[in-house]
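Note to self: user wants both folds in one dump. Writing first protein now.
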Amino acid sequence: MPVQLADLLTTIDRRWPVAGAEAWDAPGLVTGDPAASVRRVLLAVDAVQATVDEAVESGADLLITHHPLLLRGVTSVAEDRYKGALIARLIRADCALLAAHTNADVVEDGTSAVLAERLGMTDASPIVPSSTTPGHGLGRVGRLAEPTTLGRLARRLAEVLPPTATGVRVSGGYDDHVQMIAVCGGAGDSLLADPAVRAADVYITADLRHHPASEAREQALLGTGPALIDVSHWASEWLWLDRAAAQLRTDHPDLEIAVSELRTDPWDFQVVQ
């Protein structure tokens, strides 16, 4: 049986409340009629040509992405610009588009929490707790049940995450002891100076830039900072899609809900020197 999009929006806001999003973020419905019927939903990390084509060609009525297509202001949706072309294709196909971004990061089973769970972390709590909702917040920090080495943890990540051209990059000694771990799905170098991250043995995140990573590495050499593991932004958040799909299936068992297997990491290959 079809579900009205408006009802699905209510479910989504209950699962990933828009009120919990960061002030700079732009989650929510991008295009679509709340009165429309929804039978099939596709989840993806990014709203790009490949995932929009997949949604339309598979007959999806709603594409839910983690990253907002219109995060920053645009002055045109002309179809010679990729955002305009994607929006036009979705509208013509009667496929709505919705983003669940930082509002899906901060919930108890959000992007970082799923990554922490897949690594076997216990008693994981937010790095930056919400001031209003217990258990919510950015990132997660916790312990492994058994200590391991930095190299083995990196190899575990390579097994857990979908493969990408950039793989898993590590700053620290291969045999360094690690047990206390901080993770932040997506771009997380803004948390490098957080006390919870500084106290961890290793910090796992994505999009680490040269200067913040270099400064963190130098601090770690003084014994007061974590080793670093840098992974693909897309890969670190893709794991969450299965959890989100399972939740929506529980809430709306009549819906057909699929997760995109397409790799939308922007890098295609790497030449190792």
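First done. Writing the second protein, which came from a different request thread.
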Amino acid sequence: MLVLVAPGQGAQTPGFLTPWLELPGATDRVAAWSDAIGLDLAHYGTKADADEIRDTAVAQPLLVAAGLLSAAALGDIAPGAVAGHSVGEITAAAFAGVLDDTAALTLVRKRGLAMAEAAAVTETGMAALLGGDPEVTVPHLEKLGLTPANMNGAGQIVAAGTLEQLAALNEDKPEGVRKVIALKVAGAFHTHHMAPAVDRLAEAAEELAPADPTTAYVSNRDGRTVGTGAEVLERLVGQVANPVRWDLCMETFKELGVTALIEVCPGGTLTGLAKRALPGVRTLALKTPDDLDAARELAATASEPAADAAGA
């Protein structure tokens, strides 16, 4: 079974959209999306520097647009399940047919603006902790006033809080943690710092008419599949202020019988986690259109048992 996944904020790099705009029809499609949401996606995806695309209000719609564009370029594939990490959940909602592309981009544009506004209240950030035991790491983070905002599995937890709290973490790492890496994000996402954005996003969601998923949609809240469009939307709203349980999402992939996983552009982060947490599952990250042929081949053979695929 194939799982199609979409990365979250921090995956963006300057110019990453450039090669994708060379595909037939891509420039026109991105221009139409840009007009719909009032943001020049082509500019930010090709010419903007790292600081410009670090802006939450820019990064989030840019990532969703890239995910939609790269997934469309794959053609007619049939994943057995879809999921996204953080803002990637909106991309996944479009994959599952819950939202059309324009609705997904409209929602993520409002999400990015609301979260950027909430982040401006206090100087906050996020940092990835590599290694360690969650049973030791989580209480240590809470002692420092930090939130385990992303439980990513595969030996990775992302902490979020004020810059002072993150500085204290650098000086006082939990036992067993090898490294603390600051992330390219502009706020403490998935924590109480984002509570003001929840109400704004709830208002935006009321204007949408979600359809029920046509593909199994795995939620960040608890790793469970969600059967109705209304519940998907409700979870998308609340998730901005609650931890991402990507570890539980990957457990569900296993239960569903995943044999192959493709991560849409800008891929790399989630395939890296899957390689460590889902042994035997073939993975592929879409970075440029050069990866499309291999991704189509992987999708076509995804029904092969994982053990057989690992030796292929």
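Dump finished. Worth passing along: The beta strands are 2-6, 81-84, 124-131, 147-153, 156-162, 177-182, 216-218, 225-226, 260-263, 282-285.
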